Amino acid sequence: MELALSTxxxxxxxxxxxxxxxxxxxxxxxxxxxxxTALGLGIAVTFVLVCTLPINYMLENYVLTEGALAKWLGxxxxxxxxxxxxxxxxxxxxxxxxxLVEMVIEKFAPTLYASLGIFLPLxxxxxxxxxxxxxxxxxxxPNVGIxxxxxxxxxxxxxxxxxxxxxxxxxxxxSDIPKPLRGLGIAFIITGLMGMAFMCFSGMNI
Amino acid sequence: xxxxxxxxxEVLVSPLSKNNPVIIQMLGICSALAVTSxxxxxxxxxxSVTVVVAFANVIISLLRNTIPNRIRIIVQLVVVAALxxxxxxxxxxFAYDVNKQLSVFVGLIITNCILMGRLExxxxxxxxxxxxxxxxxxxxxxxxxxxxxxxxRELLGSGTLLGFQVIPQAFYDWxxxxxxxxxxxxxxxxxxxxxxxxxxxxxxxxxEN
Lengths: 206, 209
Prior knowledge:
heterodimer, A: mainly alpha, 10 helices, globular, B: mainly alpha, two-stranded antiparallel sheet, 2 strands, 2% strand
């Protein structure tokens, strides 16, 4: 329980997907122009992270790592090491899951589907999602619960970042910025400053 | 019919400045920032991405008439993932230390927006040779930004380049101190912002309103 709480808080603030690892920057910069779409995308990303991380965790620990197959297929598989396949398996899971989510939303919530539009299929190539799975692989979480909590925390961290950014950019339309910096340039500087603010959480432990 | 006609040369050269993937097209920013605290991983990353973009472009361009439109994203992802797996295994074998430093970012080449962006925008509509040049050009344009950012961050942050001390000891004796902030993630963003600033101040037609 303690571990779950600390993983949750760390993944939101200390190891924030955007400010500490720059994952999902592309859609973060492209979609943060108004708060409403930013919120929609943030929720969709969080949802996909929460769903794909446990699936990938199970695959990693029961199929892909060396000797994992031996746990349930018998000792003759003890030397099989499939870890080189992990990239392809992870991205396939993520892409098919996004497709699935898209179809479910289209069928049962057409209004939400219309408001998310093009951003739904693009979640498949959001670095934050694959990054979550790869960090999960690197950190070797003890059980699937912690992995899910990590997914939830990373998603919320991403949501916070894009929401804050969208709010600032909405206000920014009224400010007098040097011409060459307008648009992309100032967005980078703001993200940098937000990142510095988030750095005050580093080293925080529960 | 030369291999480098004017149009092909344009395809190869324009991503270096006027149509740079990172600072103009906004593609592949994630990894551009994360691997640049030192020059060496930045160079290795640039080479890996160039190789993957070039070959993924060629493969998709060859397959472009046989891929059903509805599932093209999954096909592209599988092609890219296979190439990245090869690159990652090669790095593990021949450059293990750098591979450790790059950690998850080698795998993240798969979702690097440069790949999907160029595959969608170029390889699906052009022949294999043009696509190959486009891949090389965009890889180099991406690498250029990576190397510039890596250069300044390593020089100002640790006083070294590629691990060799370049700022003389005498400076430190007079009281010069490395700027530790340059190593931290936020400064990568600021450095890129400065590059954009300089680049757009020179190319006025690129400015946004």
